[in-house]
Write a structure and sequence with these properties.
The chain has 241 residues and is α/β, with parallel strands linked by helices. The chain has 6 helices and 9 strands; from the N terminus they run βαββαβαβαββββαα.
Amino acid sequence: MLVACLQHVSFEGPGNIAQWAATRGHSLNVIHLSEGRTLPRTDEFDMLVVMGGPMSIHDEADYGWLIPEKRLIAQSLDQKKFVLGVCLGSQLLADSFGSRVYRNRVREIGWFPIRLRPEGSQSPSFAGMPDRMDVLHWHGETYDLPPGCVHLAESEGCLVQAFEHRFALGLQFHLEATPEGLRELIRNCGHEIGLGSFEQSPEGMVADESLHREVTHSALFGILDRIERRIGSDRWDQNSV
């Protein structure tokens, strides 16, 4: 399988997604948008992964590559190419479905629990996920549930933590973060951490990472394996028509 990954900043890479691709024998092409790299064509990948970043989806004046990136996401969905959005990527995905993206009532930064909704336990992507799981958050914006999508998970600080479409999955949180990736996030974005109820200290984040690593790693690989099977099934269905 060919996987294209859109990376917005140097310190928010695919992390454990890259490890999954290597383990499963998939080709991973990482496109660094901040370096002016050319976007792939939709016929060059089977799955598009859109990573996080500190910018907003509304910052097109400062980050001109957001405009063609949004166009590529919309084209991918139109052509039934699976899109996985992580944090900023999920906000871009929600925007492509026509959902409103706006500032959340609180910032979520650190390890806090998400809860699966009843629909989440029946989801093709989330099947087998624990009902409650501590995950890494780092965001200040959110979105309404996109039209035609299923609401999978929520948290006390943010209503829509995950949503699903036949050809898309949006995750507001970071299952992909490695220990090194978390330290890079703190090094580059630690100034964003305040004293809010859902903002954890850098020391607390690093200490808690080892407690949750095995669970989040397993959850990510399970989600990606199920997406891979869905892509294979959808491709077979389309070729059979």
